[in-house]
Design brief:
This protein is an alpha/beta fold. It has 21 helices and 12 strands. A hairpin with a 4-residue loop joins strand 4 and strand 5. Bound molecules: D-mannonic acid (CS2). D-mannonic acid (CS2) binds next to helix 10 and helix 14.
């Protein structure tokens, strides 16, 4: 029998204090839930939300408007225990769109004195930064557009900057910018994106951004798969929840935030948020242990024919391999504050991955690999090699990623990979094969840090794994690894 705890939203919001960019499933199931709990506890709140989608998923914005911003989050602990939470804290939903239809409404909201925090989940590529160096990609056509047209920006950094420019012009203090994407040093990276863009437009504004805008870093964690028809049907059948804006997620949730909010913030700590001085150890732990394992499960798991994370972690050959990655290649690169037990963390992660209520698609995790690999695997791999340690698991992951990016479909047609570098991958796949293809991938400056690209031992490990994948097949490679461990 399924135990469903229902939590309703009855309290009114007094004011919209937070504007969010990126109204995806993750935002609806993570930040919005913390704000809803804050609202329920206080009975009212000045931290209501206005959330916007910039270019993708207009449908969810329309749906939310029809429902007056209300929707449900189904939190699955396991098959027996589900909490169905109603969210009422989202007071305005906007869609900017290609033509910038609601850009003005969004900018006005961001420039309003009541807005004190702007949060973002626009995915790694949304910041238009080189994933390795963290520098703004000024050659990117959308950034070039924002440099030329500062008042009608298209990118997230451009929109944040234009709103800040308006505040400065009207003498309103800067809002705090809180990046909630899985990037290393995400506060600093966001500052870098906004300040570098400002420097291309107006040096004084760039200086003002550097002097007056706070960009605290944070680590966010909750597994929230993208919704599909099957998940909506299950919600309807199992929980009697007929809501096309609903989201399904795990019951686990974590948020660690650097406590630097000059215009104030909700008292998040009461809802279990960890407010810290330095988020970096937590961020690196999560990126390498959780996200790194996710990417490994995705690329190696898909080669084994699996579709979801729970299927992949239940594979008797893959589970020990991922465990070995966590203990031998991720954990040794971390320096955690006292009290953090990485062995227990790894155990918890395996249990979370096994939650089969979620149907978390490996293909979803595999997307945008070029943007994810540097922080999930490559910085750690560099550290391991410097310490004279092996990188077998990471190297197999990279080989599987190259394979995934370049293999034609079974019918011979080219598979379009969901990645900003997809045209480059197609080009490399047409020009090279075997060891030269691997070499061409390892030369990609946008993905591999220079120090790694130059290491013969690194290149040799990936080459060896790629050859073994082709010659022996993935299952046999995993078994050979296990036998030698
Ligand atoms: C995943 C993350 O899609 C991905 O790349 O690794 O979205 C992951 O589910 C979250 O970071 C969990 O907090």
């Amino acid at each position: 029998m399924r135990v469903v705890k229902r939590v309703h939203s009855t309290s009114p919001v007094r004011e919209i204090g937070i504007v969010h960019l990126g109204l995806g499933a993750f935002h609806r199931a993570h930040q919005a839930v913390y704000l809803q709990r804050h609202l329920n506890r206080h009975g009212t709140s000045e931290w209501g939300l206005c959330s916007a989608n910039l270019r993708s998923n207009r449908a969810v914005v329309d749906q939310l408007r029809e429902q007056d911003g209300r929707y449900h989050v189904a939190e699955y602990r396991d098959r027996e225990q589900v909490t169905l939470r109603e969210i009422g804290v989202l007071r305005q939903a906007l869609y900017v769109g290609e033509g910038g239809q609601e850009l003005e409404a969004l900018l006005q909201r961001m420039a309003a004195p009541s807005t004190r925090i702007v949060t973002l989940t626009v995915t790694e590529k949304g910041y238009c930064l080189n994933a390795v160096t963290g520098q703004l990609r000024i050659e990117d056509p959308v950034i070039a557009h924002d440099i030329a047209h500062p008042h009608s920006p298209r990118t997230a950094p451009g929109i944040v900057l234009e709103a800040l420019r308006r505040r400065r012009a009207s003498g309103i203090a800067a809002f705090t910018v809180l990046c909630c994407d899985n990037m290393p040093d995400n506060g600093q990276r966001t500052r870098q994106a906004v300040a570098a863009l400002a420097a291309m437009q107006d040096e004084e504004l760039a200086q003002w951004v550097n002097d007056h805008v706070a960009f605290p870093g944070c680590m966010v964690d909750r597994i929230v798969p993208a919704m599909d028809d099957e998940s909506f049907t299950r919600l309807e059948q199992e929980l009697d929840c007929n809501d096309r804006a609903a989201v399904v997620c795990e019951s686990f949730s974590q948020w660690v935030i650097e406590d630097h909010f000059p215009l104030g913030r909700p008292d998040w700590e009461v809802e279990g948020v960890q407010m810290v001085d330095d988020v970096r150890p937590f961020e690196t732990m999560k990126l390498r242990m959780l996200n790194g394992s996710h990417s490994l499960l995705a690329y190696v798991g898909m080669l084994l024919g699996h579709e979801s994370v729970s299927d992949a972690i239940n594979d008797a050959d893959l589970a020990p391999f991922v465990e070995r990655y966590m203990t031998e290649e991720a954990a040794p690169t971390l320096q955690m504050p006292a009290g953090i037990d990485l062995v227990a963390y790894a155990e918890d992660l395996k249990a979370r991955f096994a939650n089969d209520n979620l149907q978390h698609r490996l293909r979803q995790i595999a997307m945008d690999g070029s943007q994810k690999l540097p922080q999930r695997w490559l910085l750690g791999a560099q550290q391991l090699l410097d310490q004279g340690r092996g990188i077998d698991c990471t190297a197999l992951g990279i080989a599987a990623w190259i394979y995934d990016c370049t293999q034609p479909r079974p019918d011979g047609s080219t598979r379009v990979i969901d990645d900003p570098l997809s045209p480059t991958f197609t080009d490399l796949a047409q020009r090279f094969e075997g060891a030269s293809l691997v070499d061409a991938f390892l030369d990609l400056e946008e993905v591999f840090p220079g120090a790694l690209r130059e290491r013969a031992d690194f290149r040799a490990s990936v080459q060896r794994c790629y050859r073994a994948l082709i010659d022996e097949g993935v299952r046999s490679v995993l078994r050979t690894f296990a036998a030698h461990n």
